[in-house]
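Complex record, two chains
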Amino acid sequence: MTLAHENGIRAWLQATGGIVVVLLLTQFFTGVLLAFYYVPSVDHAYQTVSYIEKVVSSGSWLRAVHHYGSQWLAVLLFLHVVQLFATKAYLERRVQWIASIFLLALIMAAGGTGYSLPWDARAFFSTRVAEGLMTGLPLAGRMARLWLLGGSDISTLTLSRFFALHVLLIPALIVAVVVWRTRVGNIFGYRHAILGGVVFAALAVWCLKHPAPLGPSVGAMTENYLPRPGAQFLWLYESLKYVPGGLGSVAGVILPGIALLILISLPWLRNQKVIGATILGAGAALVLIMTTVSYVGDRRDQHTRKQLLLQAMQEQTVRSEPFKATPLQVTAAATSSQAAGSGPPVLYVKFCVQCHGPHGEGARQGRLSFPPLLGVAAKPRRTVDDIVGLLKDPTAYGVQPPMRSFSDKLTEPQMREIAEWIVKLQK
Amino acid sequence: MNEMTQMNEARSRRSFLKLLPLGVLAGVVASIGGVAFRFLRPRISAVSDAWLDVALLSELKGPHPLARKVLAENVAGWAITTEEHNVFVLPEKNNQVLSAICPHEGCEVAWDQAGNRFSCPCHESYFAADGARISGPATRGLDSLPMRVQDGKLQVQYIAKERAIQA
């Protein structure tokens, strides 16, 4: 539908489909490129996203285009739906109307699954919220939670699921919907093309100045970290403050789902104008009001404002730090001898590095803090023999869980090799 | 004549407007495509000059090449991987260390005790006990690695596979 017969401003206002097409293409291309480096596992996701941001040429810009493009796409697709509603497309161009509503639902799903992928602190909390929303669903809550997480808790399986949904299933459905839509008419007249081109150029320029956010890693998160979702989810975040307990699932999942179903069925309903206008108007009002309330609330509360400012500064600092590659855990046949020169023994890399760091500097995992091993030989009862004994039976040396016995994993010579390396570590 | 000109102008305008969407799509694809080339450009790791432990000197005895493994750190983009490489020590040649990589296509040679030679399982190149080429598609012998003795241990600097093949 080129709408070539329309003239003037009205015709331009009705050419929003082109913007959607251009932004969809942009999301597709940038997503494919990001997948060349991204690894969907909780051990490597943050590291690979940092690598894209800090090392890969144009990586920061591409990620920003993908990140902000998804937000712009949701807003402009909603405006496209409003425009279709205003021109009574639900009566005259049903396929176009239904396809656009489906597309809106799919874009929201893509945004939700994509948000978890960087696996920074924000992503972790958003996954927790998604888990909570699923759990609260009536009747099927427990099952829905397990299916969403891929297991009994958030794990690397959860991230794999979100990744598969985000890059395979949802894009395939989007392509199917777009193909279905284009079968009934051209969506790309010259006005559409010009508007699409202008929005793409604006997005490209915006992303030169505004990198996509990347919070602290889950391991580096401090206790007073305040999770705040991106602009596209602020309305949901704020709304959930006002909804008690399991009713959050009603507000966050069931009501939006029902609203979308009603919009899809609009061509066959009575009082279409009133129903459609109510849903679209209430949806837009809810998103606008809640986003504003959240934004203003955060800035009015002095403590919150200070903490968010601090987090923004910390994020800036992390962003400007040089990238540091991390050792992969070794699973090959290596059984002894050092990884390289005076580096850690291979079995230290395999069993100890996760908690004590690649150079014995210690590490954090969530709220757990693991001690550094630097200068440990200066402490009482920490000779090579003591460390071998400690690796066999930590409690005998006053070390409590999560430190475990490695008697079942390491032979005595292997423990000795690790211990001999550890006692050489200097502060 | 005037009508003719107007018709031509209208036709030309229509053609331009028809091509405009294609132009915009091409622009979007080209701008992301240009960035994609830089984004996907392979990153060559710096060659490591670390000295890697091969074995204690006291272990290196006998008339035949001794197979040993060295573990080398490789920075691959965002990750540091530990890779295991096979080498052969020649005790009778002042502990010279040979890379196990065949200089033909990069497969790893094995020591054939019965034939007193190294053989490549891929394309049947053969090398003498000192690494010199005997026959097969390889055009030169096995590479000798830089070595030194430190604290009673034999150490080498490992040459990466692509360098060994290209040399």
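Note: Chain B touches chain A at residues 17-18, 20-21, 23-25, 27-29, 31-33, 35-36, 38-41, 43, 48, 50-53, 69, 71-73, 75-82, 84 (CB under 8 Å).
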